[in-house]
Amino acid sequence: MTTQLRDDICRVGESLFARGYVHATAGNISVRTGSGFLITPTDACLGRLDPARLAEVDASGQQTGGDQASKTLALHRQIYAADPDAHCVIHTHSTHLVALTLAGVWTQDDILPPITPYYVMKVGHVPLIPYHRPGDPAVGALVAARIRAMQAAGTPIRAVMLERLGPNVWHRSPFEASAVLEELEETARLWLMTHPEPLNAVQLAQLRDHFNARW
């Protein structure tokens, strides 16, 4: 199982890098394992990952193997603790999403309006987390609190946007988390290009009724 997860991380990282969703050594990917976590090493290029060199971390956060773990491990662990359904977390510095926080997000609670049905169905609400330096441990507590608040409100989330840094998305597997990231980045690109009217209340209700959308 762990071998498959290592391979999945590398395949997703290579795909994201090849298509421009990540660049240089920006971004990281982690998965939950039966005994802890696997996470990409610090300063690793996601397009050239070695499965054998992924950092292995136990349930308490202590590294047990591989290259030095990414400094975002603490944030990833907070996400896993707040959402038991999360089994993979991906962080990138995706261009259009970072540009959106520089130009101005739609609202603090929803960085993008619901402009397409698949954004509503596949991504849902994405709140903005105010700027903190990369690796600041305070971010984890803010993200975990937002996850729990949205769960309590009946609109659970699977992504947050770190101001000026990029999105963190999570799902049941690397491939599902990657799909959320891609839909989120492409919606940001559409919004910056066109600024269309959001879907109206009736259209959103149809998506909730027919597809159980989290909006």
C-alpha end-to-end distance: 34 Å
The level of helicity is 40-55%
Spans of at least 5 consecutive residues with low confidence: none
Strand content: 5-15%
Please specify the SSE layout and strand pairing.
Layout (H helix, E strand, L loop, with lengths): L1 H17 L9 E5 L3 E4 L15 E4 L4 E3 L7 H10 L5 E4 L3 H9 L13 H6 L5 E2 L8 H15 L6 E4 L3 E6 L2 H21 L6 H11 L4
Parallel strand pairs: 6-7
Antiparallel strand pairs: 1-2, 1-5, 2-3, 3-4, 5-8, 7-8
Helix pairs in contact: 2-5, 3-6
Task: Please characterize this protein's 3D structure.
The chain is of the alpha+beta class. The chain is 41% helix and 15% strand. It has helices at residues 2-18, 73-82, 95-103, 117-122, 138-152, 174-194, 201-211, and strands at 28-32, 36-39, 55-58, 63-65, 88-91, 128-129, 159-162, 166-171. It has an 8-stranded mixed beta sheet, with helices on both faces. A hairpin with a 3-residue loop joins β1 (28-32) and β2. It is globular, with a radius of gyration of 17 Å. 42% of the residues are buried. The mean pLDDT is 96.
